[in-house]
Write a structure and sequence with these properties.
about 450 residues; 6-stranded antiparallel sheet; 5-stranded parallel sheet
């Protein structure tokens, strides 16, 4: 995004955390002519996952996912490049061969980000731990999923402990178009209320095969997670299964009250899927929080009748992930609902993924500047990828809110979509999303 034409401001904006979101927020702020004080506790205070003191250090993977313009992540990257993202620029400059994915040399990438931030004349870097929320406004909190205990305590005071989460256990989400409705049926238990669930029934033989595959599949718990610290109500499905062969049939796969209209009988076991969004383009596997490796999730969960060709929009996972309840606490501008001068960015907001965190940091930075100058704050349209992601995290059901990444399921149904053949629909939607961003940017950038 172009620099504002006004005289540079003297009031600094505080940014806490120099990960992907914090670095991007600081850069966007400074590029608009506003000074920044950027706090980063590393290397003086390290996290269990980080190894260096470099900014934007990647800790899980060197891949920023697909760069294809026909994918959700590719579209998101296009949007952020158009908005002048530092993170995407450095990623492009340090990329390594990875087919259609954007993968980077981690060290080169982090060094480029660190150099750009450190050399910017309007950014002052302070290598110290911020143990409480800054008093100055505007301020941007981008401390990430490994937020320090001291800052977490400060967030408790602001948000109420009920709205701040730590060990995160989430279920997979699949595209509704990939569910075989010849095998599944729509119904709610005991026919109570609206028939909102998609149900995948199993015979005893199918259940036993599934149970064997589930209990022998490989798991991949994050190093700093102890399953005993998880609430009993969100235990990974494989841990429930390990308690006994019928544990699932008396738990998340309970068939009671779900009569298959085609047979008139209850199945031996049932997997229920619940709508993840109002448009019902995404469905969550109810009670299937899991720490299985992603490849194992695809293999095992595609054994469920009706999910043989499931397209996973998000895999389940269990890991330490500090995030706020965005639907309750956050505006679509990334401002706190209770304190308009306080912004949040990155995974702390409930976005999931490197590029998604970058996008949150970018918008938080631009909007902090706009607030400082008394300008209208930016909210991207829902028909753009970043706009759809922002809308989702700030309007989802607060009782079941979980982190979300970029995917086509969060884009609302588009006019004329029903006339497009299913095989061509994703490319068609991608083109419409790209057009929507271009139209918005033409009048905004």
């Amino acid at each position: 995004m172009k620099k504002d034409s006004v005289v540079p401001d003297k009031t600094p904006i505080i940014v806490v955390g120099a990960g992907l979101a914090g670095a991007e927020a600081a850069w966007q702020t400074a590029q608009q002519g506003v000074p920044v004080v950027l706090y980063e506790m590393r290397p003086e205070v390290q996290t269990p996952a980080h190894k260096t003191g470099l900014f934007a250090e990647l800790v899980c993977s060197n891949s920023l996912k697909s760069d294809s313009p026909e994918t959700a992540h590719g579209l998101l990257k296009q949007e952020l490049r158009a908005l002048g993202s530092l993170i995407l620029r450095c990623a492009d400059e340090s990329k390594v061969p990875a087919g259609t994915a954007l993968a980077v040399d981690r060290e080169v990438f982090a060094e480029r980000v660190t150099q750009a931030i450190s050399e910017h004349p309007l950014i002052e870097v302070r290598r110290e731990e911020m143990q409480e929320l800054p008093a100055e406004r505007p301020a941007i909190i981008a401390t990430g999923p490994l937020t320090s205990p001291a800052m977490a305590k400060a967030l408790f005071a602001l948000t109420d402990e009920r709205y701040l989460f730590f060990y995160d256990a989430i279920s997979p989400i699949v595209s509704v178009d990939s569910i075989d409705m010849e095998k599944a049926f729509v119904a709610s238990r005991y026919d109570k209320g609206e028939a909102a669930y998609i149900n995948c029934p199993m015979t005893q033989e199918e259940y036993e095969r599934f149970y064997e595959a589930l209990t022998t599949a490989e798991v991949s718990l994050h190093a700093d997670v102890d399953p005993r610290e998880l609430f009993d109500g969100c235990l990974p499905v494989e841990i429930i299964a390990a308690r006994g062969k019928d544990a699932l049939r008396f738990g998340p796969m309970k068939p009671v009250g779900l009569r298959d209209p085609r047979t008139g009988r209850n199945a031996y076991a049932v997997v229920q899927l619940r709508p993840e969004n109002v448009e019902r383009t995404m469905y969550n596997l109810v009670g299937f929080q899991t720490s299985l490796k992603w490849g194992e999730q695809a293999r095992v969960f595609r054994m469920i009748p009706g999910l043989e060709h499931a397209e996973f929009l998000r895999y389940g996972q269990v890991h330490r992930n500090t995030f706020i309840n965005a639907p309750t606490l956050l505006r679509p501008t990334f401002q706190s609902r209770a304190d308009e001068g306080l912004f949040f960015a990155g995974q702390l907001t409930g976005v999931e993924g490197y590029v998604e965190s970058t996008g949150a940091g970018l918008l938080a930075g631009l909007n902090a500047v706009r607030l400082l100058r008394g300008q209208e704050l930016l909210v991207l349209p829902r028909t753009t990828m970043m706009g759809a992601l922002t809308h989702h995290i700030t309007t989802a059901d607060p009782e079941t809110f979980q982190p979300m990444n970029a995917n086509f399921g969060i884009i609302p149904p588009l006019e004329g979509e029903e006339k497009v053949p299913k095989k061509e629909r994703k490319a068609w939607r991608a083109a419409r999303v790209a057009e929507a961003f271009k139209a918005w940017a033409t009048t905004t950038i």
